[in-house]
Amino acid sequence: MKIKDSKLYAVLILVSLLFGSCRKYVEIDTYGSRTLKTTNDYQYLINNRVNFQTTSIMPIISNDDISGTPSQAAANQWGEQVLKAFLWSESFYGDDQQDIGWNNLYKHVYVANEILQGVMESADGSESQKQIIAAEARVHRAFAYFSLVNQYAQIYNPSTAANQLGVPLLLRPDLFQELNRAPLQTVYQQIVTDLEQSIDVLPNRPAINHHPSKLAVYALLTRVYMTMRDFEKAAENADRALALNPELINVADYVDATYPQVIDDPEVILSKLSSGSVTGPINAELVALYDVKDLRLTHFLENNASLNGFKYMKPTKSGSFYAVVGLSTPEIYLNRAEVYARQNNVAKTVELLNALRMKRFRTVDYVALTAADIQSDLLQAVIDERRREFVGTDLRWYDMRRLTLDGAYYKPVERTLNGQTYRLDANSPRFVYPINQEVLTLNPEIGQNPR
Fold first, then answer.
1. β-strand 268-270 against 413-417: which pairing, if any?
2. Residue 425: C-alpha distances to residues 161, 401, 405, 415 (Å)
3. Where are the domains of the chain?
4. What whole-number distance in Å separates Cα of residue 390 and Cα of residue 403?
5. pLDDT at residue 10, rounded to an integer
6. Which of 90, 224, 288, 354 has the fewest CB atoms below 10 angstroms from its CB?
7. CA angle, 163 as apex, 157 and 166 as ends, to 5°?
8. Are the CB atoms for 298 and 312 separated by under 8 Å?
9. What's the rounded Cα separation, in Å, for the pair 47 and 29?
């Protein structure tokens, strides 16, 4: 079935919504039409943060950062859609409701495709400018597809990925094309291809962190290869990223000061934001992982009496309503540490964990980890550090998914509400989000995910 009139592209078909905030960025040839002609037209598209910034919210809700036994008062604040995602329900949305995460991410894909189709033939720009714009578009497209397959597709397994279903893989801005799903392996191959084709022309670091850079490409390739379980390539790209000396913030510097806003945060390599926020009690098991002097316990979280526990507060302290869910320096350190742990390299695992942890304590309170502290289970030590660092972001959901292939390192998650218990086991089909019924009604070839 063709995509004509599909709600998948409702936000895209209405091009006036896409470009409405930047009419001056494109030329108007005739009444009611708008044409991208010059390289600067495409430059304005890539510069406009609205086109690529906002992603999704459900991975923050479905992961186990939030307590499995929230109070009724906390649950009442969430609304029906959030509550359904929290309980990994059969569906998240009603028949006439939109999946904002799906729409946002496919909007990123569409804008990137629009740029890639026309920028190299655009007028008045230099070859270098065109190449950089195209490279940035490829990175944004790769990020969107990674997010899509880690929400709406099966968990990547190298031995079966060629036969696993991915998501519709759209590589041109054609509103009338088939939406059959590509194999999961094919989607990942496209992600890698997009990233590898962008590296050479991008600057080492971004002038502004919503623009992709070499550092962002290496960071995203590391994340992608970790998920694909190609740990050798994950390590190679993490090393390339670390060679560019990405900066870590000393949280102690901001105990009595405002945390940097997203655009000024040196740890943010590629700025992306969640599509909303959720307030909920933090899992007590997660809170117990923090040392009482770990500044993340009081700076990333905040004790909240009404929720009978901690809530995630880092976005609020940086002046943002939304969580930062893009690419960051701490992820590079912890991805590299994880590969070392999987290789049983105790010394290098300790070194990288300490490089991050020393920035999360006051100097007077910091005690370096030793090999004796973690050598009994190196991988678990890294997983615990990831949980402390990435609380309140989508990374925990992506970690939970990939850790299902690591035996005991995935622990089943239980949630209880209104006297009923819900359980997410490693082999549960609920690790894959449902496709919104409104999309399926108009595009049945996509097919619903097993529930």
1. unpaired
2. 20, 10, 12, 12
3. 7-273+321-446
4. 16
5. 36
6. 288
7. 75
8. no
9. 23
424 in helix, strand or coil?
strand
Task: Give the per-residue pLDDT at 33.
Answer: 39
SS3 state of residue 318: coil
Helix (H, G, I), strand (E, B) or coil at 162: helix
- What pLDDT does 31 receive? 30
Which segments of 153-230 does DSSP mark as H helices, in order?
184-198, 214-228
The DSSP result for 44-76, as a single string, is HHHH-GGGTSB--SHHHHHSTTB-SS--HHHHH
User: One-letter amino acid identity for 74?
Assistant: A
Extract long-range pairs of 419-427: CB within 8 Å, 24+ residues apart: 422/87, 422/88, 424/88
pLDDT tens figures, 222-252 = 999 999 999 999 999 999 999 999 999 999 9
Q: Which two tokens stand for residue 365?
A: 């309170």
List CB contacts of 232: < 8 A, sequence separation 6 or more: none
The secondary structure of 324-354 as a DSSP string is B-SEEHHHHHHHHHHHHHHTT-HHHHHHHHH
Second CATH level (architecture) for the domain 7-273+321-446: Alpha Horseshoe (1.25)
Q: In the 8-state DSSP scheme, what is residue 324?
A: B
* Residue 235 in tokens: 């390590």
* Cβ neighbours of 159 (radius 10 Å): 8
pLDDT of residue 281: 87
Evaluate the CA torsion angle 77, 82, 88, 90 in order and state its sign: positive
Q: Which residue has the tokens 């392996």?
A: 185
Residue 146 pLDDT class (50, 70, 90 cuts): very high
